[in-house]
From TrEMBL:
Protein name: asparagine synthase (glutamine-hydrolyzing)
Annotated organism of origin: Trapa natans (Water chestnut)
Matches recorded under Gene3D superfamilies: Glutamine Phosphoribosylpyrophosphate, subunit 1, domain 1 (3.60.20.10), HUPs (3.40.50.620), Potassium Channel Kv1.1, Chain A (3.30.710.10)
Stretches for region Disordered: 515-540, 598-662
Domain of life where this protein originates: Eukaryota
Protein family membership: Belongs to the NPH3 family.
Polar residues bias: start-end ranges: 521-536
NPH3 domain boundaries: 215-510
Length: 1252
């Protein structure tokens, strides 16, 4: 075969020459002749090539017939006449293996020999599949030959298999789809596992094979693969029973090779010589992108063998340090911390000294308090200690006999760690103290290490106040100090005087006890040998002297106590004067709100809280000064009071007020229930508790668990009213009916009044569910007015039911385990690991174990989508909405309204502000409403929200965020909201950031405006609704899907920070009234001045007592994700474009065949979701389909132009939105809303009715 340039074809001979490529034109021409008897192929000077094939940037001149005879892809191709010198030409896009592989395929088509090697066989197999070179085209075609070579030659050789797998790294997704990667990984794993199943004698006596790879160097071979192939091999090795030590060794070697700095001891950090910038530059500079290394860390953590002996504790701590450095998923970090806790006794102090890679500014932003900054990950170590103690407590009783040495080792480790971090000048005393007292009583046999740590901390922090020093020293038991430590402490002028006295006193007690122990022996020896009586007398005199000194110490201590009391009285007088002047300057709301914490305090805690922070608690009896009190408060750093709370001074309550509060106990919570477990051991109980903790962000106030045989009901509570009452699960009178609830029952008082034959155990609004079940069986759900998801167990017949509110305001998921168990949870993350399949529980349904399935309990007339005919009455609509808002003002905690400046949130704020003074909440929190808004600086929402707040006279809180801050939070947002829907993520991120700010102010409940656009057709795409039938059917579809979109966003974005969101527009009574109005009134008619949601705007258009300014009342619909700032969505798209390549999006259908992402932004969100929730069941809980401006797929058909611009943003409504995509906002468009508003304001309801 000769490969020549066109200029040389006339002078070419018929000899077979070596190939030659003319570089300037990159042209390759087949000019060979091959004669085998029946078929002859002649050179190009006899038969001119008629096809030009382009692969990458190389052109091949060939003949059409040899190609179509073996390649089905080319045969079925519709050839078009070429404009070049050839009859036909075409280009092969994204050809596997590139032009070198196509050259080999071309040789095969011409019948020329080609060599199969481990380096080219994978690319030839993929190329043959690309060109459809099947047996149907010709016997012995390339697919059959390459497949046979892989099966019988490659897979039988370990070395060749490794080479083929390496070559597959550039052949995605073809190599994956053809199972080449899977077969190679399985083959390597089988060979690697073979030796692990044999004894050492069998390995030694086995004859050597030339091709065999030394399994002792398996980790080196494994480290040469790409991370995804490495994971596949490790997974296969686990399945084939490889020893966990071998797998662990491979993982350690891989980490050391691809994670620079994992073995580097950062000594400078212990001397505080490095900052964040210096560390990251040094580590990242060694190679690799941060995103790639983050993916490697997450992958390695996900495949760690569960056996404790597989990897050492030192490696686990190195991986933890690396995971924190690369900001790995919180769930993986949490699992790694729990794994470390199981082998914590093997750790060293140097390994625990994990540096904090956030600088002080980053930490201050992250923790909301400069005092919480530190140079080490103290919070991480605190969690590890808590996991260790939790594991120790869950051990069976027969194993607890051997716990003492393990706890003793960990206590010494913790004391050494405390001594090391005490040198950190930025470490707060709160963190240090909480970590020091994390171990239980008796864990430390000697407190010398703890004393050394405390002394080091006080020495490093000389400005620590005296009362903080005393509180810190109380952690130490002076009675457990050695003699050397006591001598040092007695002369330590840094210690509080009281601590020094306790040290001296404890030493005297020790000496006295020692003397008493020796007195009987001395007396006995004196009776036997009288010459020693003089020595006994000397000892008695010494004891008397010590007692005299003890009395002097007591007198000195009493004198100091008297002086201290006098100083304390003077301080209280000064404090009362300052407090009097300050209270006069505080607003009514700020002087009323406070943390509802007194019901949780014990008597001793109340005594402490009533005293000044500098005052010590009452002294224990003299004989116990050197010992700790039995009561010891254990607290976590995450549960400490916020430094920025708005809750200050409690209101004095009357007995009537206290009794009224006990009648109510609303709570938005997290629930988990499991029924029919095969395993009902203590381990299963611990697993349920662990899964329930994943919902703790929903209910950080309290936890509860009820176990009955193989049934478990767990609850995480967020107390909204009366935190001391209503802890769940809840029961009936004899505790035969158990219920766990997430939500609010607004009509519980009316229901209680009807249940006169029942006795209620608590003040919880949700307790009525248990008694209604007793009274009415399973047919009581429709009696409940509120938002709720609950699970109820009847222990009398071991039946259970689960139900969800009408619209799905509160989330609920249902799952099934492999053991036949049935699971329910408020969020998917509690089910994803233990359930084989799970679904989003449909709203308005009840599940009954007796019936074995779901049935709908909520069946309103509009659900059938029949066209209603009730005429529009603005007064009825207004009264229904005001009633819905007033109903949601019942609360005993600080609250506010989410105000975006749009119509819906502004109406909620207006009604709440108008009726707040007459509500019970005003007597506790004042009559001034608090409103909250979030957005980029200069965004539309911030501007209009400020105007509404000024008009209503609310106390407005405005929060700003940047596009980068939103992007940084995306992964955490997706973890909490559990969806990859583009619109939901766009809107959830600002709401997620705002909720964190709101919670930091002490607010636990907010009222929001979700649901109005679905009820009244407020989205801009409703402008194109062709008729009232289509309009009404679309609103019904939108309401039915609310639980997957806006309800999910509003609930989970706020619950992520322990804030409850209430939505009055989705009140059941208001919804029934609104959806029964003739949809002709909801239709958008610009010709008569009716814009979107006109009937709602008109109902609140009161000239005498206006609810809102006109330009706000008739402001054009702005979706929340647009209103926070148009650059927010634009920034998300730009970020996704930088993260997702064109090739990745082109292959999205292979990776995500279900709900395939059509944009790079959707692909980016989907990739994050799949990493957090990899199961098929998880991705099936998210809806899909085309959408424009939040429409359903059906509504896209209303306008043909929308199918070309499928974006959920409101600006995608071309021709409707004033700032639509690809439209210049000229003066006409900008003023269109105001023109409509002015036109609409002059049209009375009667005239509009006439037009209809």
């Amino acid at each position: 075969m000769a490969l020549q340039s066109p200029q040389g074809t006339d002078q070419s001979d018929d000899r077979v020459q070596d190939q030659s490529i003319v570089v300037p034109t990159k042209l390759i021409t087949i000019t060979d002749s091959l004669q085998d008897g029946e078929i002859s192929w002649f050179t190009t000077h006899q038969f001119h090539p008629d096809v030009l094939v382009q692969v990458e940037n190389v052109n091949f001149r060939a003949h059409k017939y040899p190609l179509i005879s073996k390649c089905g892809y080319i045969r079925h191709r519709d050839f078009q006449p070429s404009i070049s010198d050839y009859e036909y030409d075409f280009k092969l896009e994204r050809f596997p293996g590139g032009w070198e592989t196509f050259q080999a395929v071309l040789r095969f088509c011409y019948g020329l020999p080609i060599d199969f090697t481990p380096q080219n066989i994978a690319s030839l197999r993929c190329a043959s599949e690309y060109l459809e070179m099947t047996e149907e085209m010709e016997d012995g075609n390339l697919i059959a030959k390459t497949e046979a070579f892989i099966t019988f030659v490659i897979l039988s050789s370990w070395r060749d298999t490794i080479a083929v797998l390496k070559s597959c790294e550039n052949l995605s997704p073809w190599a994956e789809n053809l199972q080449i990667v899977r077969r190679c990984c399985d083959s390597i794993a089988w060979k690697a596992s073979e030796d692990s199943r044999r004894s050492e004698e069998e390995i030694r006596d086995r004859p050597a094979v030339d091709d065999e790879v030394d399994t002792s160097k398996l980790d080196e071979f494994m480290a040469s693969f790409r991370i995804d192939h490495f994971m596949r091999i490790v997974t296969a090795m686990k399945a084939q029973g490889s020893k966990p030590e071998i797998i662990g060794k491979c993982i350690i070697h891989y980490a050391e090779r691809y994670l620079p700095g994992i073995d580097e001891e950062i000594e400078g950090l212990r001397g505080y010589g490095y900052g964040k910038k210096e560390i990251t530059v040094r580590i990242f500079g060694q190679g690799g992108e941060k995103s790639d290394q983050k993916a490697i860390v997450e992958s390695l953590l996900s495949i760690l063998p569960p056996q404790l002996e597989s990897v050492p504790c030192k490696f686990l701590l190195k991986m933890l340090r690396t995971a924190i450095l690369y900001s790995v998923t919180p769930a993986l970090i949490s699992d790694l911390e729990k794994r470390i806790a199981l082998v914590l006794e093997d750790a060293s102090v140097n390994d625990l000294l994990i540096p904090s890679y956030r600088n002080q500014l980053d930490q201050a932003i992250y923790t909301n308090s400069p005092e919480e900054c530190s140079m080490h990950e103290v919070d991480t170590v605190q969690r590890i200690i808590e996991y260790f103690l939790m594991h120790e407590q869950q051990k069976p009783h027969h194993q607890k006999k051997h716990q003492k040495p393990k706890k003793y080792t960990v206590s010494k480790l913790l004391d050494s760690y405390l001594a090391a971090i005490a040198k950190d000048p930025t470490l707060s005393i709160t963190k240090f103290r909480v970590l020091a007292e994390s171990l239980p009583e008796g864990a430390r046999t000697c407190h010398d290490g703890l004393y050394r740590a405390i002394d080091t901390y006080i020495k490093t922090h000389p400005s620590v106040p005296e009362h903080d020093r005393r509180r810190l020293c109380k952690v130490m038991d002076c009675g457990k100090l050695s003699l050397d430590a006591c001598m040092h402490a007695a002369q330590n002028d840094r210690l509080p005087l009281r601590t020094v006295i306790q040290v001296l006193f404890s030493e005297q007690i020790k000496m006295r006890n020692a003397m008493k122990a020796k007195e009987p022996a001395t007396q006995q020896s004196g009776e036997e040998n009288s010459p020693y009586n003089n020595q006994s007398a000397d000892k008695d005199a010494e004891i008397k002297t010590l007692r005299a000194e003890l009395e002097k110490v007591k007198a000195k201590m009493a004198e100091l106590q008297s002086d201290y009391s006098e100083l304390q009285n003077e301080y209280e007088k000064l404090s009362s004067i300052k407090q009097h002047h300050r209270s006069r300057r505080l607003s009514g709301w700020a002087s009323s709100w406070r943390k509802v914490k007194s019901p949780f305090q014990t008597k001793s805690e109340r005594d402490v809280s009533d005293r000044d922070p500098g005052e010590d608690p009452p002294q224990s009896p003299v004989g116990h000064i050197g010992c700790r009190s039995n009561f010891r408060r254990r607290s976590s750093i995450s549960h400490l009071p916020s430094h920025h709370t708005l809750l200050r001074h409690p209101i004095k309550k009357t007995p009537d007020r206290q009794r009224e509060r006990k009648k109510r106990a609303y709570s938005m919570c997290g629930i988990l229930a499991v029924f029919g477990c095969i395993d009902n051991s203590q381990a299963k109980r611990s697993r349920i508790i662990e899964l329930s903790r994943r919902l703790r962000h929903r209910g950080p106030d309290w936890s509860g668990l009820h176990c009955y045989d193989d049934c478990y009901l767990a609850h995480q509570r967020l107390a909204i009213v009366d935190p001391a009452s209503g802890d769940q699960p809840l029961y009936n009178e004899d505790k035969t009916v158990v219920v766990t609830v997430n939500g609010e029952i607004y009509n519980h008082k009316d229901l209680r009044a009807k249940l006169t034959n029942h006795q209620f155990r608590t003040g919880s609004d949700c307790e009525v569910i248990a008694h209604l079940y007793e009274e009415h069986g399973e047919d009581f759900i429709d009696m409940l007015d509120g938002m709720f998801s609950f699970v109820l167990l009847d222990t009398r017949n071991k039946s259970f039911i689960a139900a969800r509110d009408a619209i799905g305001i509160t989330p609920l998921y249902m799952g099934w385990g492999l053991d036949g168990s049935v699971w329910f949870a408020s969020e998917m993350k509690a089910l994803s690991d233990d359930c084989e399949r799970f679904i989003s529980f449909p709203p308005g349904h009840i599940y009954s174990s007796k019936e074995g399935g779901l049935r709908r309990w909520y069946n309103p007339p509009w659900f059938s989508e029949q066209i209603p005919s009730t005429p529009y009455d603005p007064l009825v609509l207004r009264a229904a909405f005001e009633k819905a808002v007033i109903k949601r003002l019942m609360t005993d905690v600080p609250f506010g309204v989410l105000l975006s400046g749009g119509l819906d949130s502004s109406l909620v704020a207006a009604v709440a502000s108008r009726h707040l003074a007459d509500s019970e909440a005003a007597s506790q929190w004042g009559s001034q409403l608090h409103t909250f808004c979030v957005g980029l600086k200069g965004s539309p929402d911030l501007k209009f929200a400020r105007e509404v707040a000024d008009f209503l006279g609310t106390r407005h809180h405005e929060f700003h965020f940047t596009v980068q801050e939103g992007i940084d939070a995306l992964e955490e947002v997706i973890y909490h909201i559990e969806t990859y829907d583009v619109t939901t993520i766009r809107a959830s991120t600002p709401m997620f950031l705002m909720s964190r700010k709101i919670k930091s102010l002490g607010v636990k409940m907010v009222i929001s405006g979700e649901g109005s656009d679905e009820i009244f057709g407020g989205y801009l795409y409703f402008h194109k609704a062709p008729n009232k039938k289509e309009f009404h059917e679309e609103t019904c579809r939108k309401i039915k899907a609310l639980h997957l979109y806006d309800c999910l966003r509003a609930n989970k974005s706020t619950s992520a920070w322990g804030v409850e969101a209430r939505v009055p527009f989705l009140d059941k009574e208001f919804l029934d009234i609104s959806m029964n109005i003739d949809p002709e009134w909801k239709m958008i008619r610009r010709d008569i001045g009716r814009i979107e949601k006109w009937i709602l705007r008109n109902a609140f258009d009161d000239e005498e007592k206006p609810y809102l300014p006109k330009h706000i009342l008739y402001r054009q619909k702005e979706q929340f994700s647009d209103g926070v700032g148009y650059s927010w969505i634009d920034g998300l798209k730009d970020h996704a474009n930088n993260q997702v390549t064109d090739a990745m999006l082109a292959h999205a259908g292979f990776l995500y065949p279900e709900n395939t992402p059509s944009t790079k932004e959707a692909y980016y969100y989907r990739a994050i979701f799949e990493k957090l929730f990899p199961k098929n069941a998880a991705r099936s809980t998210v809806p899909g389909g085309p959408s424009v401006a939040c429409s359903t797929a059906k509504a896209v058909e209303w306008d043909a132009s929308w199918s070309k611009n499928l974006d959920p943003s409101g600006r995608a409504a071309l021709g409707v939105h004033d700032a639509a995509y690809d439209e210049e906002p000229d003066s006409k468009n900008v003023s269109s809303t105001n023109g409509i508003s002015s036109k609409l304001q002059g049209i009375p309801v009667e005239k509009a009715a006439t037009e209809v």
